[in-house]
Design brief:
Bound molecules: glycyl-adenosine-5'-phosphate
Shape: globular
Low-confidence stretches: none
Number of helices: 12
Mean pLDDT: 95
Distance between the termini: 33 Å
Structural class: alpha+beta
Strand content: 25-35%
Radius of gyration: 26 Å
Largest sheet: 7 strands, mixed
Number of strands: 26
Helix content: 25-40%
Strand order of the largest sheet: 3-12-13-19-16-15-14
Length: 453
Protein backbone atom coordinates (compact mmCIF):
# COMPACT_ATOMS: atom_id res chain seq x y z
CA UNK A 1 0.00 0.00 0.00
CA UNK A 2 1.30 3.51 -0.78
CA UNK A 3 2.20 6.06 1.93
CA UNK A 4 -0.85 8.22 1.17
CA UNK A 5 -3.27 5.30 1.16
CA UNK A 6 -1.72 4.14 4.45
CA UNK A 7 -2.37 7.52 6.02
CA UNK A 8 -5.88 7.53 4.52
CA UNK A 9 -6.42 4.13 6.10
CA UNK A 10 -5.29 5.48 9.49
CA UNK A 11 -7.67 8.42 9.08
CA UNK A 12 -10.53 6.00 8.40
CA UNK A 13 -9.60 3.90 11.44
CA UNK A 14 -9.35 6.94 13.75
CA UNK A 15 -12.70 8.20 12.36
CA UNK A 16 -14.39 4.84 12.91
CA UNK A 17 -12.99 4.60 16.45
CA UNK A 18 -14.57 7.93 17.34
CA UNK A 19 -17.81 7.47 15.38
CA UNK A 20 -18.59 4.08 16.89
CA UNK A 21 -17.27 4.64 20.41
CA UNK A 22 -13.99 2.74 20.54
CA UNK A 23 -11.56 5.57 21.35
CA UNK A 24 -11.97 9.31 22.01
CA UNK A 25 -9.39 11.96 22.68
CA UNK A 26 -9.14 12.64 26.40
CA UNK A 27 -10.75 15.92 27.57
CA UNK A 28 -11.94 16.47 23.99
CA UNK A 29 -14.52 19.15 24.85
CA UNK A 30 -11.71 21.27 26.33
CA UNK A 31 -9.49 20.89 23.28
CA UNK A 32 -7.93 17.57 24.27
CA UNK A 33 -4.80 16.60 26.13
CA UNK A 34 -2.02 15.35 23.88
CA UNK A 35 -1.05 11.70 24.19
CA UNK A 36 -4.04 10.74 26.34
CA UNK A 37 -7.06 8.73 25.23
CA UNK A 38 -10.38 7.55 26.62
CA UNK A 39 -11.94 4.25 25.62
CA UNK A 40 -15.66 4.37 24.83
CA UNK A 41 -18.31 1.64 25.31
CA UNK A 42 -16.92 -0.64 22.59
CA UNK A 43 -13.25 0.17 23.18
CA UNK A 44 -13.47 -0.78 26.83
CA UNK A 45 -15.02 -4.16 25.93
CA UNK A 46 -12.31 -4.87 23.35
CA UNK A 47 -9.58 -3.89 25.80
CA UNK A 48 -11.07 -6.03 28.57
CA UNK A 49 -11.40 -9.04 26.29
CA UNK A 50 -7.72 -8.69 25.40
CA UNK A 51 -6.57 -8.31 29.02
CA UNK A 52 -8.83 -11.14 30.21
CA UNK A 53 -7.53 -13.48 27.52
CA UNK A 54 -3.91 -12.59 28.39
CA UNK A 55 -4.64 -13.21 32.08
CA UNK A 56 -6.41 -16.47 31.25
CA UNK A 57 -3.54 -17.96 29.24
CA UNK A 58 -0.74 -16.43 31.33
CA UNK A 59 -2.09 -17.05 34.84
CA UNK A 60 -5.20 -19.24 34.98
CA UNK A 61 -4.11 -21.87 32.50
CA UNK A 62 -0.69 -22.33 34.12
CA UNK A 63 0.57 -23.85 37.38
CA UNK A 64 3.76 -21.81 37.38
CA UNK A 65 2.42 -18.22 37.27
CA UNK A 66 0.59 -16.15 39.89
CA UNK A 67 -0.74 -12.61 39.60
CA UNK A 68 -0.46 -9.35 41.49
CA UNK A 69 -1.75 -5.80 41.28
CA UNK A 70 0.69 -3.17 42.50
CA UNK A 71 0.25 0.48 43.33
CA UNK A 72 0.80 3.10 40.65
CA UNK A 73 2.39 5.68 42.94
CA UNK A 74 5.89 4.42 43.54
CA UNK A 75 8.47 5.08 46.27
CA UNK A 76 11.39 6.99 44.75
CA UNK A 77 13.87 4.48 46.22
CA UNK A 78 12.39 1.78 43.98
CA UNK A 79 12.96 3.80 40.85
CA UNK A 80 16.39 4.96 41.98
CA UNK A 81 17.46 1.34 42.44
CA UNK A 82 15.99 0.31 39.08
CA UNK A 83 17.90 3.09 37.31
CA UNK A 84 14.82 5.05 36.21
CA UNK A 85 15.52 8.21 38.23
CA UNK A 86 19.00 8.54 36.71
CA UNK A 87 18.59 6.98 33.32
CA UNK A 88 14.99 6.87 32.09
CA UNK A 89 15.36 9.84 29.82
CA UNK A 90 15.43 10.81 26.17
CA UNK A 91 17.87 13.38 24.77
CA UNK A 92 15.74 16.32 23.68
CA UNK A 93 16.41 19.17 21.28
CA UNK A 94 14.37 22.33 20.54
CA UNK A 95 14.12 23.92 17.11
CA UNK A 96 14.54 27.68 17.65
CA UNK A 97 12.83 28.42 14.30
CA UNK A 98 9.48 26.59 14.69
CA UNK A 99 9.74 25.95 18.48
CA UNK A 100 9.25 22.18 18.03
CA UNK A 101 10.38 19.97 20.92
CA UNK A 102 12.07 16.95 19.39
CA UNK A 103 13.69 13.72 20.44
CA UNK A 104 17.29 13.76 19.19
CA UNK A 105 16.64 10.71 17.00
CA UNK A 106 13.88 12.57 15.15
CA UNK A 107 16.25 15.08 13.53
CA UNK A 108 16.91 14.60 9.82
CA UNK A 109 20.40 14.85 8.42
CA UNK A 110 21.02 16.49 5.03
CA UNK A 111 24.57 16.79 3.67
CA UNK A 112 25.88 16.00 7.15
CA UNK A 113 23.87 18.81 8.80
CA UNK A 114 21.14 18.07 11.35
CA UNK A 115 17.81 19.73 10.60
CA UNK A 116 14.36 20.03 12.16
CA UNK A 117 12.01 17.46 10.51
CA UNK A 118 9.10 19.98 10.64
CA UNK A 119 10.53 23.18 9.17
CA UNK A 120 14.03 22.23 7.98
CA UNK A 121 15.47 24.75 10.50
CA UNK A 122 19.13 24.31 11.44
CA UNK A 123 19.06 26.54 14.53
CA UNK A 124 18.79 23.80 17.15
CA UNK A 125 19.54 23.74 20.88
CA UNK A 126 22.14 21.36 22.32
CA UNK A 127 20.63 18.05 23.48
CA UNK A 128 19.49 17.93 27.10
CA UNK A 129 18.29 14.89 29.05
CA UNK A 130 14.56 14.83 29.67
CA UNK A 131 13.31 12.33 32.27
CA UNK A 132 10.15 10.60 31.09
CA UNK A 133 8.71 9.94 34.53
CA UNK A 134 5.79 11.91 35.97
CA UNK A 135 6.63 13.19 39.41
CA UNK A 136 4.11 14.00 42.14
CA UNK A 137 3.97 14.51 45.92
CA UNK A 138 2.40 12.25 48.51
CA UNK A 139 0.83 13.97 51.51
CA UNK A 140 0.56 17.61 52.40
CA UNK A 141 4.18 18.71 52.04
CA UNK A 142 5.29 19.39 48.47
CA UNK A 143 9.03 19.11 48.98
CA UNK A 144 11.91 16.71 48.23
CA UNK A 145 10.86 14.37 51.03
CA UNK A 146 7.41 13.72 49.59
CA UNK A 147 8.31 12.97 45.96
CA UNK A 148 6.73 9.88 44.40
CA UNK A 149 6.50 8.82 40.77
CA UNK A 150 3.74 7.43 38.62
CA UNK A 151 5.23 4.10 37.63
CA UNK A 152 6.83 4.03 34.16
CA UNK A 153 6.37 0.23 33.95
CA UNK A 154 4.49 -2.33 36.01
CA UNK A 155 7.58 -4.53 36.34
CA UNK A 156 9.22 -2.83 39.31
CA UNK A 157 6.44 -3.60 41.79
CA UNK A 158 6.80 -7.27 40.82
CA UNK A 159 10.52 -7.22 41.64
CA UNK A 160 9.93 -5.38 44.89
CA UNK A 161 7.25 -7.90 45.98
CA UNK A 162 9.24 -10.92 44.80
CA UNK A 163 10.05 -12.20 48.31
CA UNK A 164 6.51 -11.78 49.67
CA UNK A 165 4.99 -13.57 46.69
CA UNK A 166 7.58 -16.34 46.80
CA UNK A 167 6.70 -16.96 50.44
CA UNK A 168 2.92 -16.89 50.10
CA UNK A 169 2.70 -18.83 46.84
CA UNK A 170 5.39 -21.39 47.80
CA UNK A 171 6.38 -21.67 44.15
CA UNK A 172 9.62 -23.28 43.04
CA UNK A 173 11.77 -21.96 40.21
CA UNK A 174 11.01 -21.47 37.43
CA UNK A 175 7.85 -19.50 38.17
CA UNK A 176 6.35 -16.19 37.11
CA UNK A 177 4.48 -13.19 38.50
CA UNK A 178 2.06 -11.46 36.14
CA UNK A 179 0.55 -8.00 36.27
CA UNK A 180 -1.72 -5.90 34.07
CA UNK A 181 -1.96 -2.22 34.77
CA UNK A 182 -1.33 1.40 33.97
CA UNK A 183 2.07 2.90 33.26
CA UNK A 184 2.94 6.55 32.60
CA UNK A 185 5.63 8.16 30.50
CA UNK A 186 5.92 11.83 29.63
CA UNK A 187 6.70 11.04 25.98
CA UNK A 188 8.19 13.98 24.12
CA UNK A 189 6.26 13.27 20.95
CA UNK A 190 3.17 11.14 21.46
CA UNK A 191 2.02 10.03 18.02
CA UNK A 192 0.33 7.54 15.73
CA UNK A 193 -3.01 7.64 17.53
CA UNK A 194 -2.70 5.55 20.71
CA UNK A 195 0.60 3.94 19.66
CA UNK A 196 2.81 6.23 21.72
CA UNK A 197 0.74 7.59 24.61
CA UNK A 198 1.59 9.23 27.88
CA UNK A 199 -0.70 6.95 29.88
CA UNK A 200 -1.05 3.35 28.77
CA UNK A 201 -1.46 -0.16 30.06
CA UNK A 202 1.02 -3.00 30.10
CA UNK A 203 0.63 -6.77 30.44
CA UNK A 204 3.88 -7.91 31.99
CA UNK A 205 5.19 -11.26 33.16
CA UNK A 206 8.39 -11.60 35.16
CA UNK A 207 9.39 -15.24 34.84
CA UNK A 208 12.06 -16.13 37.43
CA UNK A 209 14.50 -18.93 36.76
CA UNK A 210 17.95 -20.38 37.39
CA UNK A 211 20.76 -18.62 35.50
CA UNK A 212 21.34 -21.59 33.19
CA UNK A 213 17.65 -21.57 32.09
CA UNK A 214 17.59 -17.93 30.95
CA UNK A 215 18.45 -18.24 27.27
CA UNK A 216 16.21 -21.25 26.71
CA UNK A 217 13.28 -19.53 28.43
CA UNK A 218 13.82 -16.43 26.31
CA UNK A 219 13.16 -18.58 23.21
CA UNK A 220 10.23 -20.31 24.90
CA UNK A 221 8.49 -17.05 25.82
CA UNK A 222 9.09 -15.50 22.39
CA UNK A 223 7.26 -18.47 20.81
CA UNK A 224 4.46 -18.38 23.41
CA UNK A 225 3.91 -14.70 22.78
CA UNK A 226 3.80 -15.14 19.01
CA UNK A 227 1.21 -17.86 19.50
CA UNK A 228 -0.82 -15.48 21.69
CA UNK A 229 -1.03 -12.87 18.94
CA UNK A 230 -2.09 -15.50 16.41
CA UNK A 231 -4.80 -16.68 18.82
CA UNK A 232 -6.32 -13.22 18.96
CA UNK A 233 -6.38 -12.84 15.19
CA UNK A 234 -3.05 -11.26 14.24
CA UNK A 235 -1.56 -13.55 11.60
CA UNK A 236 2.07 -14.70 11.85
CA UNK A 237 2.82 -13.05 8.51
CA UNK A 238 2.14 -9.58 9.97
CA UNK A 239 4.36 -10.20 13.02
CA UNK A 240 8.13 -9.82 12.95
CA UNK A 241 10.76 -10.73 15.48
CA UNK A 242 13.62 -8.28 15.76
CA UNK A 243 16.68 -9.54 17.59
CA UNK A 244 17.90 -6.43 19.39
CA UNK A 245 21.63 -6.21 18.61
CA UNK A 246 24.30 -6.20 21.35
CA UNK A 247 24.96 -2.46 21.29
CA UNK A 248 21.27 -1.51 21.52
CA UNK A 249 20.19 -3.81 24.35
CA UNK A 250 20.07 -2.68 27.96
CA UNK A 251 23.57 -3.39 29.36
CA UNK A 252 22.23 -6.04 31.76
CA UNK A 253 20.22 -7.98 29.16
CA UNK A 254 21.72 -11.12 27.64
CA UNK A 255 19.10 -11.25 24.89
CA UNK A 256 16.08 -9.21 23.80
CA UNK A 257 13.50 -9.71 21.07
CA UNK A 258 11.07 -7.07 19.91
CA UNK A 259 7.84 -8.47 18.52
CA UNK A 260 6.74 -6.03 15.83
CA UNK A 261 3.55 -5.61 13.82
CA UNK A 262 3.02 -4.07 10.40
CA UNK A 263 0.86 -1.05 11.34
CA UNK A 264 -0.40 1.18 8.49
CA UNK A 265 2.21 3.72 9.68
CA UNK A 266 5.04 1.19 9.53
CA UNK A 267 6.55 -1.77 11.32
CA UNK A 268 6.55 -0.99 15.04
CA UNK A 269 7.06 -2.72 18.39
CA UNK A 270 4.13 -4.43 20.11
CA UNK A 271 6.07 -6.19 22.82
CA UNK A 272 9.57 -6.75 24.15
CA UNK A 273 10.72 -10.17 25.38
CA UNK A 274 13.90 -9.66 27.38
CA UNK A 275 16.27 -11.82 29.41
CA UNK A 276 17.12 -9.30 32.17
CA UNK A 277 19.48 -11.63 34.10
CA UNK A 278 19.51 -10.98 37.86
CA UNK A 279 19.89 -7.22 37.39
CA UNK A 280 16.61 -6.00 38.92
CA UNK A 281 16.52 -8.25 41.99
CA UNK A 282 20.23 -7.56 42.63
CA UNK A 283 19.66 -3.83 42.45
CA UNK A 284 16.74 -3.95 44.88
CA UNK A 285 18.60 -6.26 47.24
CA UNK A 286 21.56 -3.88 47.27
CA UNK A 287 19.45 -0.74 47.72
CA UNK A 288 16.97 -2.09 50.31
CA UNK A 289 19.41 -4.23 52.27
CA UNK A 290 16.77 -7.02 52.26
CA UNK A 291 17.60 -10.44 50.92
CA UNK A 292 15.87 -11.27 47.63
CA UNK A 293 17.61 -14.61 47.34
CA UNK A 294 16.03 -17.94 46.57
CA UNK A 295 16.95 -21.05 48.51
CA UNK A 296 17.41 -24.08 46.35
CA UNK A 297 16.79 -27.15 48.51
CA UNK A 298 18.56 -29.66 46.24
CA UNK A 299 22.12 -28.33 46.23
CA UNK A 300 21.26 -26.24 49.37
CA UNK A 301 22.28 -23.02 47.68
CA UNK A 302 21.11 -19.43 47.90
CA UNK A 303 21.18 -17.24 44.81
CA UNK A 304 19.39 -14.34 43.15
CA UNK A 305 17.09 -15.69 40.45
CA UNK A 306 17.37 -14.53 36.86
CA UNK A 307 14.32 -13.29 34.98
CA UNK A 308 12.82 -13.42 31.50
CA UNK A 309 10.26 -10.70 30.85
CA UNK A 310 7.61 -10.67 28.12
CA UNK A 311 6.23 -7.11 28.30
CA UNK A 312 3.29 -6.23 26.06
CA UNK A 313 1.37 -3.00 25.57
CA UNK A 314 -2.42 -3.25 25.92
CA UNK A 315 -3.15 -0.10 23.93
CA UNK A 316 -0.74 -0.98 21.15
CA UNK A 317 -2.26 -4.43 20.86
CA UNK A 318 -5.78 -2.95 20.78
CA UNK A 319 -4.62 -0.66 17.99
CA UNK A 320 -3.07 -3.59 16.12
CA UNK A 321 -6.31 -5.56 16.53
CA UNK A 322 -8.36 -2.71 15.08
CA UNK A 323 -5.91 -2.12 12.20
CA UNK A 324 -5.82 -5.85 11.42
CA UNK A 325 -9.61 -6.17 11.59
CA UNK A 326 -10.44 -3.14 9.44
CA UNK A 327 -11.59 -4.04 5.96
CA UNK A 328 -13.88 -2.88 3.22
CA UNK A 329 -15.70 -5.15 0.82
CA UNK A 330 -18.74 -5.07 -1.45
CA UNK A 331 -22.12 -6.24 -0.26
CA UNK A 332 -25.65 -5.86 -1.66
CA UNK A 333 -27.92 -3.18 -0.16
CA UNK A 334 -31.67 -3.58 0.45
CA UNK A 335 -32.40 -3.39 -3.27
CA UNK A 336 -29.59 -5.74 -4.27
CA UNK A 337 -27.28 -2.93 -5.46
CA UNK A 338 -23.65 -3.44 -4.45
CA UNK A 339 -22.26 -0.98 -1.91
CA UNK A 340 -19.09 -0.67 0.13
CA UNK A 341 -19.30 -2.42 3.46
CA UNK A 342 -16.95 -1.47 6.32
CA UNK A 343 -16.32 -4.47 8.51
CA UNK A 344 -14.09 -5.11 11.51
CA UNK A 345 -13.11 -8.75 11.19
CA UNK A 346 -12.26 -9.26 14.86
CA UNK A 347 -11.57 -12.77 16.07
CA UNK A 348 -14.83 -13.71 17.88
CA UNK A 349 -12.76 -14.23 21.06
CA UNK A 350 -11.96 -10.53 21.37
CA UNK A 351 -14.93 -8.91 19.55
CA UNK A 352 -16.63 -6.36 21.86
CA UNK A 353 -20.14 -7.60 21.01
CA UNK A 354 -20.51 -11.28 20.20
CA UNK A 355 -24.04 -11.40 18.83
CA UNK A 356 -26.65 -8.98 17.47
CA UNK A 357 -30.30 -9.95 17.94
CA UNK A 358 -32.90 -8.51 15.58
CA UNK A 359 -36.67 -8.92 15.31
CA UNK A 360 -37.50 -8.61 11.59
CA UNK A 361 -40.12 -5.94 12.34
CA UNK A 362 -40.28 -3.76 15.42
CA UNK A 363 -44.04 -3.27 15.27
CA UNK A 364 -44.84 -6.97 15.58
CA UNK A 365 -45.12 -7.78 19.27
CA UNK A 366 -44.59 -11.53 18.78
CA UNK A 367 -41.33 -11.03 16.86
CA UNK A 368 -40.13 -8.51 19.46
CA UNK A 369 -41.03 -10.77 22.40
CA UNK A 370 -39.22 -13.74 20.85
CA UNK A 371 -36.13 -11.63 20.12
CA UNK A 372 -36.05 -10.38 23.72
CA UNK A 373 -36.36 -14.00 24.94
CA UNK A 374 -33.25 -14.81 22.89
CA UNK A 375 -31.39 -11.86 24.39
CA UNK A 376 -32.15 -13.23 27.87
CA UNK A 377 -31.05 -16.71 26.79
CA UNK A 378 -27.69 -15.51 25.44
CA UNK A 379 -26.82 -12.68 27.84
CA UNK A 380 -25.47 -14.88 30.69
CA UNK A 381 -22.90 -16.26 28.25
CA UNK A 382 -21.82 -13.33 26.07
CA UNK A 383 -22.24 -9.66 25.18
CA UNK A 384 -25.39 -9.21 23.11
CA UNK A 385 -26.78 -6.18 21.29
CA UNK A 386 -30.51 -5.89 20.64
CA UNK A 387 -31.49 -3.72 17.69
CA UNK A 388 -35.00 -3.28 16.28
CA UNK A 389 -34.61 0.00 14.40
CA UNK A 390 -34.28 0.39 10.64
CA UNK A 391 -34.17 -2.06 7.75
CA UNK A 392 -32.57 -5.39 8.59
CA UNK A 393 -29.72 -4.81 6.10
CA UNK A 394 -28.84 -1.52 7.84
CA UNK A 395 -28.82 -3.29 11.21
CA UNK A 396 -26.41 -5.92 9.86
CA UNK A 397 -24.12 -3.17 8.53
CA UNK A 398 -24.05 -1.39 11.89
CA UNK A 399 -22.92 -4.61 13.57
CA UNK A 400 -20.40 -5.40 10.79
CA UNK A 401 -18.80 -2.01 11.35
CA UNK A 402 -18.16 -2.75 15.04
CA UNK A 403 -17.03 -6.32 14.37
CA UNK A 404 -19.95 -8.32 15.82
CA UNK A 405 -19.28 -11.83 14.48
CA UNK A 406 -22.84 -13.20 14.65
CA UNK A 407 -26.36 -11.92 14.02
CA UNK A 408 -29.62 -13.66 14.95
CA UNK A 409 -32.81 -12.66 13.17
CA UNK A 410 -36.28 -13.56 14.38
CA UNK A 411 -38.66 -13.77 11.41
CA UNK A 412 -42.13 -15.12 10.63
CA UNK A 413 -40.75 -18.63 10.25
CA UNK A 414 -39.63 -18.41 13.91
CA UNK A 415 -43.31 -17.99 14.77
CA UNK A 416 -44.13 -21.10 12.72
CA UNK A 417 -46.39 -19.13 10.39
CA UNK A 418 -45.09 -20.64 7.13
CA UNK A 419 -43.92 -24.07 8.20
CA UNK A 420 -44.63 -25.45 11.69
CA UNK A 421 -41.37 -27.43 11.47
CA UNK A 422 -39.47 -24.13 11.55
CA UNK A 423 -41.17 -22.84 14.69
CA UNK A 424 -38.59 -21.62 17.23
CA UNK A 425 -35.79 -21.52 14.71
CA UNK A 426 -33.90 -18.36 13.69
CA UNK A 427 -31.39 -17.32 11.06
CA UNK A 428 -27.81 -17.12 12.27
CA UNK A 429 -25.70 -14.82 10.10
CA UNK A 430 -21.93 -14.94 9.89
CA UNK A 431 -20.32 -11.47 9.66
CA UNK A 432 -17.45 -12.46 7.35
CA UNK A 433 -19.14 -14.77 4.83
CA UNK A 434 -22.57 -13.09 5.28
CA UNK A 435 -23.99 -16.63 4.96
CA UNK A 436 -27.09 -17.50 6.95
CA UNK A 437 -28.07 -20.80 8.48
CA UNK A 438 -31.27 -21.84 10.21
CA UNK A 439 -30.81 -23.05 13.78
CA UNK A 440 -33.07 -23.96 16.68
CA UNK A 441 -33.22 -21.29 19.39
CA UNK A 442 -32.39 -23.77 22.15
CA UNK A 443 -29.15 -24.68 20.32
CA UNK A 444 -27.99 -21.06 20.00
CA UNK A 445 -26.00 -20.83 23.27
CA UNK A 446 -23.94 -23.97 22.62
CA UNK A 447 -23.34 -23.12 18.92
CA UNK A 448 -22.20 -19.57 19.71
CA UNK A 449 -20.13 -20.48 22.79
CA UNK A 450 -18.21 -23.03 20.69
CA UNK A 451 -17.52 -20.38 18.03
CA UNK A 452 -16.38 -17.58 20.30
CA UNK A 453 -14.04 -19.52 22.58
N1 LIG B 1 9.25 -3.58 31.67
C1 LIG B 1 9.80 -3.42 30.38
C2 LIG B 1 9.23 -2.32 29.62
O1 LIG B 1 8.48 -1.52 30.13
P1 LIG B 1 9.19 -1.24 27.24
O2 LIG B 1 9.70 -1.79 25.94
O3 LIG B 1 9.60 0.12 27.63
O4 LIG B 1 9.63 -2.32 28.33
C3 LIG B 1 6.95 -2.55 27.04
O5 LIG B 1 7.61 -1.32 27.25
C4 LIG B 1 5.74 -2.36 26.15
O6 LIG B 1 4.92 -1.32 26.68
C5 LIG B 1 6.10 -1.88 24.73
O7 LIG B 1 6.45 -2.95 23.89
C6 LIG B 1 4.78 -1.24 24.31
O8 LIG B 1 3.86 -2.21 23.86
C7 LIG B 1 4.28 -0.63 25.62
N2 LIG B 1 4.63 0.81 25.64
C8 LIG B 1 5.79 1.37 26.02
N3 LIG B 1 5.73 2.70 25.90
C9 LIG B 1 4.50 2.99 25.44
C10 LIG B 1 3.82 4.23 25.10
N4 LIG B 1 4.40 5.41 25.27
N5 LIG B 1 2.55 4.15 24.63
C11 LIG B 1 1.93 2.96 24.50
N6 LIG B 1 2.53 1.79 24.80
C12 LIG B 1 3.79 1.80 25.26
Amino acid sequence: MSKSSDSQLMEKIVGLCKRRGFIFQSSEIYGGLNGLWDYGPLGVELKRNLKNYWWHVTVHERDDVVGMDGSILTHPAVLKASGHVEGFSDPMIDCRTCKAHLRADQLVEKKGIKQCPNCGGKDLTAPRQFNLMFETHVGAAADESSIAYLRPETAQSIFVQFKNILEVSRKKLPFGIAQVGKAFRNEINPRNFTFRSREFEQMELEYFCRPEQGMELLEYWKEERLRFYENIGIPRGKLHVLTVPDGERAFYSKGTYDIEYDFPFGRQELEGVAYRTDYDLSQHQKASGKSLEYFDEEPKQRFIPHVVEPSAGVDRTVLALICEAYSEDQAPDEKGKMETRVVLRFHPRIAPVKCGVFPLLKNNSQLVAKAKEIVSLLRPHMTVFYDESGAIGRRYRRQDEIGTPFGVTVDFETLGEKDPALRDTVTLRDRDSMKQERVAIHNLPSILIARIQ
